[in-house]
Specification:
With 227 residues, the chain is of the alpha+beta class. It has 3 helices and 14 strands. The strands form 3 sheets. Strands 2, 5, 6, 7, 8, 12 and 14 form a 7-stranded mixed beta sheet that branches. Strands 1, 9, 10, 11 and 13 form a 5-stranded mixed beta sheet that branches. Strands 3-4 form a two-stranded antiparallel ribbon. A hairpin with a 3-residue loop joins strand 9 and strand 10. The N and C termini lie far apart (44 Å).
């Protein structure tokens, strides 16, 4: 992992977040693809490696303990690296799909120090776009941070259904907790969030830790309402 960690750190994305964003990234689960293979953390897509054009691709699974509308969030950035070490292409997740991360004015890549992709996170929701101007065309982008905050309660993905449990009472508590504690009005001014290298890990390590991370927040929510 030491050599891989150097690679992961060299291409780690810079996530631009709203200055009033209430949530921080606490981990990135990373996978290096050297051949075409289905993603384990974003199972609806296959990462295609054309060896004539790229040496490898890195998938960064970006972990948040909260989304402004539900408990926990996983977004993705894919960085495709050429044989000379330069970046060929960057993609990132956007509400269950993915977009090319390019400068909307000239189509070029947006990189810091030559190798670190720069992407913008939708306030509260964390969907990734290449330009903050795109955020204003997303339906309910503002309402989701205010009157619609918390509406989805505890999100339980199929891969964690046997380890994360919820019920109607917990759903209501989570909705109220998120709205009251984290509801905010985005500033639409952005600043970089750069995760420390020691928070990088393999996807399998992050996946293994997710139930504990989520259940820890559930305990905090329950304690909040039972004091």
């Amino acid at each position: 992992m030491n050599k891989d960690l150097e690679i992961l750190a060299a291409y780690k994305p810079v996530i631009m977040q709203d200055k009033k964003e209430p949530f921080s990234i606490t981990a990135m689960g990373c996978t290096i693809f050297r051949e075409t293979k289905k993603s384990s953390s974003f199972p609806k897509r296959e990462i295609v490696i054309n060896r004539e054009e790229v040496d490898f691709a890195i998938e960064y699974a970006v972990w948040y303990d909260f989304d402004i509308q539900h408990l926990y969030e996983l977004e993705h950035v894919w960085v495709y690296v050429k044989h000379d070490g330069t970046v060929k292409k960057v993609e990132a997740s956007f509400h269950g799909k993915f977009l090319n991360m390019v400068d909307l004015d000239n189509g070029g890549l947006i990189l810091e120090n030559g190798t670190h992709p720069v992407v913008y996170a939708q306030p509260g929701k964390h969907a990734l776009v290449p330009d903050p101007r795109v955020i204003r065309i997303i339906p309910d982008w503002l309402e989701s941070c205010q009157e619609k905050a918390g509406t989805d309660g505890v999100l339980v993905q199929d891969m964690f259904a046997d380890q994360i449990h919820t019920d109607e009472d917990l759903q209501k508590m989570t909705e109220t907790y998120i709205k009251e504690v984290f509801g905010f009005c985005p500033s639409m001014e952005f600043e970089p969030f750069i995760l420390e290298d020691d928070k990088l890990m393999t996807w399998e390590e992050l996946k293994k830790s997710i139930p504990e991370r989520v259940n820890r927040q559930i305990d905090i929510i329950k304690t909040h309402f039972n004091q």
